[in-house]
Design brief:
- It is a single chain.
- The protein is α/β, with parallel strands linked by helices and 233 residues long.
- It has 9 helices and 11 strands.
- The strands form 2 sheets. The protein has a 6-stranded mixed β-sheet.
- A hairpin with a 2-residue loop joins strand 8 and strand 9.
- The radius of gyration is 18 Å and the shape is elongated.
- The termini are far apart.
Length: 233
């Protein structure tokens, strides 16, 4: 089984190492010093660096990590071609998630999902690609994974996300439970938690449908409801 290590950098960015006993891969590795220290402490070789997408706040560590470790760079567009990365004989599955950007991908391994800026803990990213339908399909693709899947996002936006969720659903008791479970030192959630609190994943929930209906927003199809919630946000 592979392990996942999370590192915070800048104000709220989250970087990751996936590693076995000997080798590791960095994803959005902006926390360069912490990553290098961890690699040294575990006697790990960094053999590859990749990103969830190419926005500059997710790629600032690439050059330095390559310089310090000799690791190769694997672009998201390259990673998604084969749909998996092999690490010590185990597969890290690469999931295409266009929407936030056209090149966005997620990484799925051992019941964990590194989602970048596609799915945050409690919210979703902006649709900078302009393709809202592709974004919706990406969210549906992630929602189809087991509900026990642990979501590791590209930023810690939990406090903001739950404040917004409370505006939409002030009577939702799951929001307080979600906030109570939030650990800024290890930011994560499960898909079942997301389905209980994340407005953008609740487009089929009867409570959310009633809220949209009261606002006079389109609700006839899943995509209409998703689009309505995105408009509120």
């Amino acid at each position: 089984m592979l392990s996942i290590r999370q590192f915070k950098y800048s104000s709220d960015n989250l970087a990751y190492l996936i590693h076995g006993k000997r080798e590791a891969i960095a994803i959005d590795g902006g926390a360069v010093e912490d990553i290098l220290s961890y690699l040294s402490s575990k006697d790990l070789r960094l053999f590859s660096i990749t990103n969830t997408h190419d926005h500059p706040d997710h790629t600032p560590g690439n050059g330095r990590l390559i310089e310090e470790t000799g690791a190769s760079l694997l672009l998201p567009s390259e990673a998604v071609v084969n749909r998996e990365i092999q690490l010590e004989g185990e597969a890290i599955h690469v999931v295409p998630t266009p929407g936030h950007t056209l090149d966005s991908v997620a990484f799925h391994v051992d019941g964990c999902l590194i989602t970048g800026d596609t799915l945050f803990n409690g919210t979703v990213g902006n649709c900078f690609s302009g393709d809202l339908e592709a974004f919706f399909k990406s969210i549906k693709r992630l929602m189809a994974l087991p509900e026990s899947t642990v979501v590791y996002a590209g930023h810690d936006y939990v406090e903001y996300a739950m404040a917004f969720a409370r505006v939409i659903e002030p009577e939702n008791p799951e929001i307080d439970r979600f906030l109570k479970a939030h650990d800024p030192g290890h930011v994560r959630s499960t898909l079942i938690q997301e389905k209980h609190v994340n407005p953008y994943l609740r487009f089929n929930d009867p409570k959310m449908i009633r809220i949209l209906e009261k606002r006079g927003m389109p609700i006839n199809t899943e995509f209409e409801r998703w689009e309505s919630i995105m408009q509120i946000g």
